[in-house]
Amino acid sequence: AAQTKVSVAAISGYFAQGFGVSIVNGLNKAKTDFGIDLKLVDTGNRALDYQEQFENLAKGKQYDLIFVMGWELVDSLQKVSKEYPDQRFVFIDGVLDNPKMIYANFAEEQGSFVAGALASMIEAKGSEFPKIGDGKAIGFVGGRDIPVIRNFLGGYEQGAKYAAPDVKVNSVFAGTFDDPAKGSELAQALYGQGSDIVYNVAGPTGEGVMQASAAADKYSIGVDIDMCGTAPGNVLGSMLKRGDIAVYTLIKDEVGGNKVTAGTRTFDLASGGVEFKVCDDIAPKIPADVTTKLDEIKKGILDGKIVIAKAK
Amino acid sequence: MEILDKLINVALIAATLRTTAPILLVALGGSFTTKAGIFNIGLEGQMLAGAFFAVIGSIWTGSAFAGVACGVAAALAFALAFAVLVVTFRANEVVVGLALNILAGGMTISLMKAIFGTRGSIVGHGIVGLPKVQIPGAQALLGSWAPLVSGFTPIVYVAFIAVPLLVLFYNRTRLGLYIRVVGEKPEAAEALGISITRVRYIASLLCGLLAGLAGAHLSLGYITMFTENMSSGRGFMAVAILIFSNGDPLKVLAGCLLFGFADAFSLRLQTFGFPSYLVLTVPYVVALTALFALSYRARPKIIKETLASMQKLLSVDRNSAPVDKNPQ
Amino acid sequence: MSDRLRAFSGQIIAVGVALLLGAIIILLVGESPVRVLMTLLRGAFGDQEKIAGTLLQTTPILICGVAACIGLRGGMFNVGIEGQLFLGGFAAAWVGFTFSLPAGIHMLAALALAIVAGAAWVAIPAFFRARYNTNEVVSTILSNYIAVLLTSYFTIFLFKRPGGWSETPPILATAYLPEIFSFSRLNWGLVIGLLLAVGVALIFRYTSWGYGVTMVGSAPKFAEYGGVNVKRQGFVVLLLSGAVGGLAGGVETLGVHHLFMEGFAPGFGFDGLIAALLANGSPVATIVTALFFGALRSGSLLLEVDTSASREIITVIQALIILSVSAQVLIKRRGDSQAGERRWKF
Amino acid sequence: MAVELTGITKRFGAFIANDGIDLAVRRGEIHAIIGENGAGKTTLMNILFGLLQPDEGSIRLNGEATVVADPAAAIKAGLGMVHQHFKLVPSLSVADNVFLGMEIRRHGLIDHAAQIARTQELSKRFGLHVDATERVGLLSVGIEQRIEILKVLVRGARTIILDEPTAVLTPQESRELFQTLRSFVAEGMTVIFISHHLEEVMEVSDTVTVLRNGRKVATRQTSELSKDELVRMMVGREVSFDRRPRAALHGDIVLDVKDLWARDDRRLPAVRGASFAVRSGEVVGIAGVAGNGQTELAEVLSGLRPASHGEAWLKGQDLTTLSPAAIREAGLAHVPGDRMVRGVDRNASIAANTLMGRHHRAPWSHNGILDWKAIAGNAGALIKSFDIRAQGAGDAVKRLSGGNIQKVVLAREFTNGADFLLVDQPTRGVDIGAQEAIHDEIMRQRAAGRAILLISVQLDELAALADRILVMFNGRIMGEVAGDEADEDRIGMMMAGVSPQLEPA
Ligand SMILES: Nc1ncnc2c1ncn2[C@@H]1O[C@H](COP(=O)(O)OP(=O)(O)OP(=O)(O)O)[C@@H](O)[C@H]1O
Ligand SMILES: Nc1ncnc2c1ncn2[C@@H]1O[C@H](COP(=O)(O)OP(=O)(O)OP(=O)(O)O)[C@@H](O)[C@H]1O
Ligand SMILES: [Mg+2]
Ligand SMILES: [Mg+2]
pLDDT for D325-344, tens place per residue? Predict the structure, then answer.
């Protein structure tokens, strides 16, 4: 039966953080464009609550699609999807072993690889490039030390090594996604130790990293959404993880009568689901050889010449 | 050596000053209540409310300083609630303090969701951060040491200048003296017509003032955004410091510098491959260790005092006192 | 008796005032208080699953509340139940996934280690409190932060489940606390909590030890005079409180999650402490207050789905209840003395 | 008239502390107020000084009707008060304490130097010697009192109220104090003081007002009065220095104290080399001005305070090595001096209060389980046998009157079967009827062969009950007087620190 109105729910504990924000943006865009019903549910941070929250959503059979984001929800999701086999869940940002679910998988390691490559090449230029010292090191600030973040770091490190093997990568973790002050201090510590470019994958904590780059007048790289505006002149670029594109395309299919079915959709460099965007104010300053090399790398990733190991 | 250079340098000291400032402000605020004889565990909540409303105020008015004023006003409201319950109703200060902390946490999140549609954090939205003060001539005079005195937001200077001001306040002003008296010997204050209630209210509000500044500094100075629970236990650290400093401004400063340093230093340790989660416990471990060590040290002091008093006594008393049997 | 009745009616009035204030705040965030209330009720008691869900939420609050009651009885503020819960939860999980033992024994062993872990975690603050009078409120709060980071470290660096999120391997089924109904995760942890509450109340009422501890809490100098070892009992009381806090964690691991993960059960320690305070330190009354908070929590899960209010509104209401209760009892007592009793009773 | 109080009534709940009191104090006189413990003296002075508000009555100061709303109003009217318990701030200097509330300021800041100078000047002028720069926490009580008086003077007081100023002073300090007071009067000031020491009242005062049970008995010129008359007015009956009849039944030594030393809370030696013994069937009294180490002695014997040296043997065990619990096991019962803090839990029931210290023992508990039925039954029996005025064993102790609370403590301690009874101020704040009952009970315990150490500041009590009286001064046992030879002068001399050996009477 063709649906007159599509109803969508999304559940996560991280709607306020970069990637979550981009998902919410995509959902809202879909709402405006297609007039869908939309419900956002914030799980909070208590593991005990998750399962009931899923059940509350699934029970009414009211939602055509339920988008789920956040690895801590996986256990509850698996249980509830077994209980409600007809309910279609879309798990964002990973693939589980349940074949009945829909997965939107992102190749964040690809974008991070590009980010690492760019950062290390610029760092390798030394004082040729403004604000770069001769420390030959770049930095990384993670939120919590968890697999997804490790995957970002892995791509970043591999990219750096690939493009400029003698540039060192210093990585630190804030242990929290919610303490921007700590993010700022960590970044300043990295800058102080000679890392001139710091990549943040730390939600609001990372916001502190961006602001620190302005304070220290060094470089930062944003994540998930376009962060060039947070510290103009100090942000090299952003590794975009286009959650908005993912949810928007899925909903568009659904609305178009093309029901979303179980399986994995991969959002990577090739599909534009992951992308490295150099900030407009920085782009003109980047030496031609770096730009060329970067394009080569992107091509290498696209045609499979460059293989990036995923972190377990 | 190279490692040491990398660890301990001007940047580390500057970082220490930055990490110290918010704890210092809130702890100095707590100094008022501590000196007035109130155990104020609600600092965390006052700071959080200050941070949130500073951001709201800044967005609303487009001015950082108006934002700070909003943050301070919110913290004052919390301080007033604390004072009404604890001073007037004489409710248990731990209960009230904890409840106000919980209230601050829940309220900021609820309001965030009501105003911005999502919880989590407030970034952008036109928040105006505090400007950084560049001290003229600092660079020329101090060279590479300039980052130690220049380039902080105004509230950082306020925090450090507040220390000598508070010393002066407690020693040389009437209100400061009354706060001390009310905390140390309320009967004395009462007998002299000093209103205990009034002094405790004033102390609570002064505390709210500085806690609010500390919060505003977190969200408009230190960085320019608000996140859920962004005070991250700094208020509790301050309470720990207050307990073993007894609220004396100089000791508070020393304690805060210790934690600021532990914080800044531990962040740097991570780059040497220590596991992040363990390194992150360092400030808390330092706080606890200091708390325990200083309460342990209270002992030898008693012995020393006793020896002194015995000596004093012996000089007038011909009978010599016998050797201690149960040295306590 | 009329005293007790008056105290009780006062408590009810205070809760009413808090709810009224809560309603105003709900209006302020742009929702209808009536709708929020109805949603809360439906979410908490709407059907048998919801009721079971409420009881599921009640369980950790109740056990943490009993832990707090034990401390309060002896005049100790254990604000570190949160940390004890985390360590207990991890310890139980560790036993659960490391050893293979016969069913039942495995579970008991895991609970036992959870208890030991909780007690051990509070032992140092307890020692310093008893021996050197170090403020236990601050030391236990600070140790919460360490506990959470430490268990995260264990989980992520030492025992992470390969391929999984930040969580340990699942425990063996032999260590599970059995579920009570088929339709809910509600498990025997609730029964443990109820038995514990009643048991602790009986111990305080009917044992010499309980009498001594109660006196330590309410009149320490009198207790000291009467030959009760105030320092030792203070230490023991904190230790027991921590042990029960650890047990709460164990129950959550073995009964619900079946593994330990980062962000295991944040906030339950505080909820329990508040429930205990609201119950004025009585374990049996804590059953009621824990149920109340459990219902609020459970009802709030529907709140996000069915209304536009944030679940955190519940936290706000909880805080308001505590504040108004702490104030109202004193309105009555205010004239009593000039010196002001600053004990935990409010 | 410097002060005129008319019809002052003050109630605390149902209790009437002041009942229609009239008091007139002439300018330039020393006016003594006496009365037993709890007669309402402090309450009356607190009302005069604005610390309490009267329920009825009016106040005229210097002939003008005045509402003394708070101490500030009293100070403004030229009153000054030195409280029974000093109200000084230990961490502040003498000068800061003197000027607290009326600091000398320059440019808005407190001028410590000027305050010190003014304090030195005043102290010289009135002969109250103090070092203005010292921290008060380090000074002796005598000096603290001088500071309190300086505080009053610096506020320009013309009428000075002193509440039991000599209770904590040595005789010499008292003498100096009275000299100072006389010099005040010579300057036209007025002095009102409260005292329990009849000699000093007779010696120093011009006029005496006697309070009893919250009422004024009389105001008389001191010169017209004899000490006997005073005492009669105070207690409303002749004081019986009569000894209780007794049979000599001293048995074996139960408590043997040898060269015992202990420190007070300020860590100063408070008990200094006490040695004495108490036999079974004997009441040994300890006399002394409050604060001469009696409390500390009692605390050491009951294990609440560590001894710094010496031994105290109770039936073969050294108490100084035992915990309070073990000492109770060894056979001590203790009626504490501060019964509200040590003696009871005010919020608990009578039954729960009668349990303390024996909650591990049958019949109150079996194998660690309390038997509340037995406990309540036992408490009910105690209520009857000790004539405790209460509705039942379930009554909260805080609802009882002071005397009845004391009886709860006595009932518990005296029925413990202990061989040694340590009884500290058993009748403080207790009405006369109850006093008799308590004395009877102590004598019964003596007859039952208990060894009793009775600490009291009331000499008549000691004279009535004790077989021997030891006198404590400044932590030392100054000497011993047989109970039937109790002679106020001799004991008084020793209480003042004059050793009987050095100055034979
Ligand atoms: N009796 C009192 N009880 C409580 N607080 C008091 C009392 N007297 C003064 N204070 C407080 O002490 C502070 C200073 O009081 P003070 O009377 O010196 O103010 P002031 O006379 O206006 O000062 P100045 O005129 O020198 O600037 C005030 O904040 C006041 O609230
Ligand atoms: N705030 C109060 N609340 C209740 N009762 C009180 C209060 N203050 C005093 N009393 C009671 O009033 C009576 C008179 O007390 P007051 O202190 O005036 O006695 P006093 O004559 O000074 O005795 P003492 O010689 O022991 O100092 C006592 O029974 C006391 O218990
Ligand atoms: Mg007296
Ligand atoms: Mg008196």
Answer: 999 989 999 999 888 888 89
